[in-house]
């Protein structure tokens, strides 16, 4: 394999810049250092053995570049975080899969005063291999959110959120666009200086371009802060119900446990372990309801200020609910998923990172993913490696 001439030249520029420059400060500083502008650049090369995430096992080399501009403001009551970015990838042989994806985001935060919270807006074009439908897809994804927290009395704090998200597929009319509206409220009780008890309710309504919809209700409770000695994070367990609308093949409701957990444990100053668990309903690009359970664990070791290594593993279970006799247009002949599809997956990954300073960082990664399914087309193995360089100014 021979790297393209322009790719080799770009890597050389990053190396020279990283060696020559001091630790990064903002490229532009304004308003007595309250406003900062940063510019980030990335280069990468990778090999993906299964770019479509299906049993055809089609692989290719991928050459990636990216640039982003970040703006931050810290003055007065309202903080601002904003960014615009562009990322492009070219495939070695499958030129039809080349893509250029822009994105933007903005966050307004209020961290002082009795009521705190944030308003968020974002949009991004995404190209990905979707393991739930086993094809590559391109879509525009939009998100908006409002979050707040208000201390009612000394021991009780009320928090809530309103959210909107949308996925609009590009030139893939066989896939279902999805819009989701959500709201939630939580009540925290201060059990100690290190631990809160929390209970909450979430409502979620999703509608697709196929004139179908779903309504989700979830009640949950748990603990936030120090869970046990040395283990920090949040753990919640509850019950949820999903009711489909407008689909004659799915007329009943689905119920089951819901769960979410995100924890961290510091073994010492150099080693950290992070774990997460999630169980929730979702909707696929073929307008199918799925009850998905996932669990993952990751560990990182910081050798010194320049070198670090990490490793992780995960497992997942996806049960497709109701009738699933829809056809997805995949490379080759149409595929009928059939009824009661059930998938399981397992994965592991590892990486080695080098940081000269913020002007030059390098990362070498490897990942392995295997999926077992009752649908033969969705049985696949996917492994990949990647070498990435980044610079921040």
Describe this structure in words.
- The chain is mostly beta strands.
- It has a single domain, classed as Porin (Beta Barrel), CATH 2.40.160.
- The protein is built from one helix and 21 strands.
- It has an 18-stranded antiparallel β-barrel.
- A hairpin with a 5-residue loop joins strand 5 (99-110) and strand 6.
- The chain is globular.
- It starts with a helix and ends with a strand.
Sum up the structure in keywords.
mainly beta; two-stranded antiparallel sheet; 393 residues; 18-stranded antiparallel barrel; 4% helix; Porin
Task: Briefly say what this structure is.
By secondary structure, the chain is mainly β. The protein contains one helix and 21 strands.
Shape field: globular
* Main sheet overview: 18 strands, antiparallel, barrel
Strand residue content: over 45%
CATH architecture: Beta Barrel
Q: Mean of the pLDDT scores?
A: 89
What is the CATH top level name? Mainly Beta
Question: What is the helix fraction of residues, given as a range?
Answer: under 10%
Question: How would you spell out the order of helices and strands?
Answer: HEEEEEEEEEEEEEEEEEEEEE
Structural class: mainly beta
| Count of separate DSSP helical elements | 1
Give the tally of β-strands.
Answer: 21
Indicate how many domains the architecture comprises.
1
